[in-house]
Amino acid sequence: MLSDATVGEDLEAWLKRKKSLARTTTNGYEGHVRLYLQPHLGHVKRRDCKLRHVEAMCNAIEKENAERLIHHARVVELQEARDAAHTAWVRASGNMEERRRTRRAYLVANAALREGRKGKRKVTSATTMLRINATLRSFLGSGAKRGDYATNWATMVELPPTKRSKALIWTHENGEALHPDWISRRFDRLVELSGLPPIRLHATRHLSATLALLGKADIKVVQERLGHRSRQITSDTCTSVLPQLLTAEAESTSAVVPRSKQPSPKRRKSRLSPS
Questions:
Q1: pLDDT tens digit string along 151-160?
Q2: Are 37 and 74 in contact (CB under 8 A)?
Q3: What's residue 275's pLDDT?
Q4: Contact by Cβ (8 Å): 63, 29
Q5: What is the CA radius of gyration of the chain?
Q6: What's the Cα-to-Cα distance from 175 to each of 8, 83, 120, 125, 239, rounded to whole Å?
Q7: Distance between CA 78 and CA 233 in Å, rounded?
Q8: Strand, coil or helix: what is 195?
């Protein structure tokens, strides 16, 4: 007699048998099952599961990604509007009515941003798609060994290629990038409080690179940090600022110039004959 068990029921039983794995692996499996496999495949009967169901799941995820990208773009627009309203409020001075008006506009824009962020979900990357498929492949492979599934359909799915991302070291508290406008406003405020002469935020970029080179940092490292296309650009931009760098370059060049050896002075013979 054919079983009426569903893929969702088999997934739950499979997870229970996987408790001996490392915690990180188990958590990854559970996340893929809860967020993707159960919603898209859980209702399918075990006996009816075919390649078309797996491909339909992948297509649905891609469609959700398109919708999430639109949502993300809308949130960016709302955030830019909120930041512009905040800037107008900060710059409004002297006219109390204008400050009240710009403050109200900022509060409205900030409330719209909070509302727009509701329901925002992360886009499923190509790498995550590969991991989801790997989880499904492990599940169907185990089911095939038990005789529950005749074919491991996950091995037949064609997924988009992935690009290897460049490793980054995060130094913010929550790992999120800071908004450029916030950084600029914060920097201007700190300069004002310090009492120092005004300086553009962009100027500190070249200053840090110049000081790094002065401290004997590798120019290749500085080039990567600045995002320059070549070392020559970094050298032209930064090494001609401080006289110490020019002096050091001149001395290093002078040190390799060949020089003739000076003859050592000969000792004079004494005219006095020994007694």
A1: 999 999 888 7
A2: no
A3: 45
A4: no
A5: 34
A6: 34, 21, 17, 18, 33
A7: 37
A8: coil
Q: Which two tokens stand for residue 257?
A: 């110039």
Record the pTM. 0.54
Q: Which of 9, 27, 31, 8 shows the shortest CA–CA distance to 18?
A: 27
Distance CA 108, CA 88 (A): 13
What b-and-e string marks burial along 91-100, b requiring 16 or more CB atoms within 10 Å of the CB? ebeeeeeebe
177-186, long-range: CB < 8 A, 24+ apart: 179/79, 179/83, 181/83, 181/87, 182/83, 185/87, 185/90
Q: Which residue has the tokens 């997934």?
A: 11
Gap between the Cα atoms of 144 and 137, Å rounded: 10
Considering only residues 19 and 154, tell me which one the structure prediction assigns the higher pLDDT: 154
Query: What type of residue is 108?
Result: V
Other beta carbons within 10 angstroms of residue 253's beta carbon come to 9
Q: Which residues contact 236 (CB under 8 A, 6 or more apart)?
A: none
**Residue type for position 272:** L
Say what angle helices 23-32 and 7-17 make with each other, to 10 degrees: 170
* H or E, element range at 221: helix 219-226
H-run or E-run covering 33: none
The residue count for the chain? 275
